[in-house]
Amino acid sequence: MDTKIETVAVTETGQCDSTDYSLSAKDRFDSCIKLADYFRQMWDSRRGYEWRISIGLWTLLGAGAVTLRSKGGIDGYILSIPVAVFYFCWLWPMWNRSEIEKCSGKHYRAEAEEILVHPNHVIRKFSDERRNVFSKILGFVSDWSMLFQLITTLFFAFALYHFNHMPPDALPTPASGPTNQNGVTHLP
Which phi and psi angles does 8 have, rounded to 5°? Predict the structure, then answer.
């Protein structure tokens, strides 16, 4: 049995617009599944983009550590600026938007499940207002992906700083001495 219901649209001012959209339960279910899939795809593509940028930054920091080895001149506070900018101006907005997309997808999937159980269920619009700033910050700093990216960025920044200030005589040199048939050097 295909149930048709009257849906209520809420305008920007919060007033109700009682319009008969006449969507069947199947159409509303399909719409919710499509919205859930859309938000999952957006989250997945944003995550891939985020990791490509992070790996690019790590490559630059690693290449800088090798290239600027024993040159001196890079102060710790100069490295802390790009790390802070990366973490708070890149990762925070990426995480925040990804969380909204992830929660939106879960919301519309739950709405689709609700329509399966109760065919007359009216779809609710997703709202992120229930999350306060403290819970967002706590979620951000406890997210494994954000922590991993921060720790890895700090590691490469420390390596760049460390290698940049390493004395030239501390650099490893190729070992000299007799070698065997496999090219392995035997130290005396």
Answer: -115, 120
